[in-house]
Amino acid sequence: MSSEERSYQELHRPASDFSSRSDYLDHELKIMKPRRFGLNLPGRDFRFELEDLVPALAGTIGIIAMYSAVMMSWADGLTQAWDHINLGKEFAIEVARVEMLLPALLFCVLASGFINPRANLAGNHGPMIPLIGAIALAGAHPLALAILLGVFGLLLSYFKGGSKLVNLTSEGTAGGLLIFLGFTGTMSQIGSIQTWATGLQSADIAAGSMGYVGLIVLAVNIVLYAYLARINKRWLAIPACAITGLLVALVLGAGFDLKFETEMGLPNLNPVYWWGSTEEGWMLGLPTMQHFIASLPFAILAVAMWSPDFLGHRIFQELNYPRGTDKVLMDVDDTMTMCSIRQMVGTALGGGNITSSWGTYMIPAAIAKRPIPGGAIILGLLVMFIAILGFPMDVAVWPPVMRVALLVGVFLPLLEAGVQMVKETKDSQSAGICIFAAAVVNPVLAWALTMLLDNNGLIGDKERASKLSFADKIIIPGGVLVVCLIAMLAVGMLEGKYGIPALL
Questions:
Q1: Whose CA is closest to 432, among 146, 148, 173?
Q2: For helices 359-367 and 412-421, what crossing angle results, to 10°?
Q3: Segments in 264-331 forming alpha helices (H)
């Protein structure tokens, strides 16, 4: 009987049979045969390993920080946009805890853990966070936005649009996109840490004189990250560096800035409380047709930004997994399906997250050479536990923890992966144009434009262009570019840089 016909249970061998831990993990990836939309069971279809704790911890730290940032942005934006609304930190934390309970159970533990281990976890759409203030001021409604985003995502996944766009993106274009996202994200986190440090003020030290705290936190973690990379333990980066950032900041006297304010317990899990009245929860009531119209361009933009996001996560698996592991690589269309359903369900329950493929889980999972299901189940249970416990959320959002976790767990690995992909002159040309266009406008439009130029042989590999059909060269890339451009013009994304006012 060939290995293709034998089950995972039959092919599994204990770690003691292998010369190294890495060889054992490679073997596990090669023999897994996950069931798509079926019941996957521990022992029969996958195993829990110590390495699964790493992406679970990394994803937990990352998602607490991201959810908190999203909800605080909604609170600030809606308070500015509506006269009768006054939302603050307490509201933001409660909504974040709503997002961390039922959606974690349904879409981490059940969906990606047991039902379809090829669908990456549905996490947070980081690039949309800076736009939330503009979304609220445009008159959008979180629930209307979620419904539209979910419907558009389901349509794209049904027609296999996500995987098609991934296949049409060359290595040069993808590499340039990852380099830009990694570099700009790295600089942003460094700036945020320094801003926090220079703003520290204690009773004994004059304000602004503790900027050295941020510098030392960064310096220690750079050395630790380099050492982990040297000994091939980079998958430990998020928990190791986040804990180190916490301890270094405390030792240097910044602990007075850490406040424990979140109490143990459950948030209000009644959707009627959040959406049924204009005097409770979000204080918006149910969405009207006007809310859907205002939310429409942002929903289109968010879905258009999914493909490059998903692409980056799948590429990370491909770069770190051995050959012959196609069966455990994340399926872009299945991930899009789960993200779409999670978007609608999570917001209907009272949440406000804008979802996407979970990068702070997938990137460390790929580095640790682990498939999706084991870590997904641990992560879901861990997120639910912390949401109930409460006070760990205060630690996770403290800058020397949150910023360091995002720095070493997302942005530096993205930067490294992008550099690895740009190997030849033709790739560097596409990457350079993508980086340039991203700096001029933004990464989404840069990806769409570079894909159009690359697929037509105007830049990059001309031989590749000759093998593509007319639809692959013109219709699909051109359509994506037009959709992205119209959506950005509609919501005013080009107003800040170039003074082009929003069409809506």
A1: 173
A2: 60
A3: 271-275, 289-304, 306-320
56 forms beta bridges with none
Residue 380 pLDDT level (bands cut at 50, 70, 90): very high
- pLDDT, tens digit, 9 for 90 and up, residues 1-29: 566 778 899 899 999 999 999 999 999 99
The CA dihedral of 131, 194, 387, 243, to the nearest 10 degrees, is 140
β-pair partners for 248:
none
Q: Are 6 and 43 in contact (CB under 8 A)?
A: no
User: Domain boundaries in the chain?
Assistant: 50-172+262-419
Nearest CA to 225 out of 213, 236, 212 is that of 236
Q: What are the tokens at 411?
A: 């942005």
Record the tokens describing residue 167, joined without a space. Answer: 């296949």
Using one digit for the tens of pLDDT, what is the confidence trace for 437-469?
989 988 878 888 999 999 999 998 888 888 899
- Picking from 482, 141, 77, the residue whose alpha carbon sits closest to that of residue 296 is 141
Q: What is the pLDDT of residue 313?
A: 87
pLDDT digits (tens, 9 = 90+) for 208-228: 568 899 999 999 999 999 999
| Tokens encoding 82 | 């509506």
CA distance 100 to 351: 9
Structure letter (DSSP) for residue 330: P
How crowded is residue 89: how many other Cβ atoms within 10 Å of its Cβ? 13
pTM of this structure: 0.82
Residues 6+ apart with CB under 8 A from 4: none
With a cut of 70, say whether residue 205 has pLDDT above it.
no
- CB-based contacts of 94, cutoff 8 Å, min separation 6: 267, 268
The token duo for 365 is: 């999972």
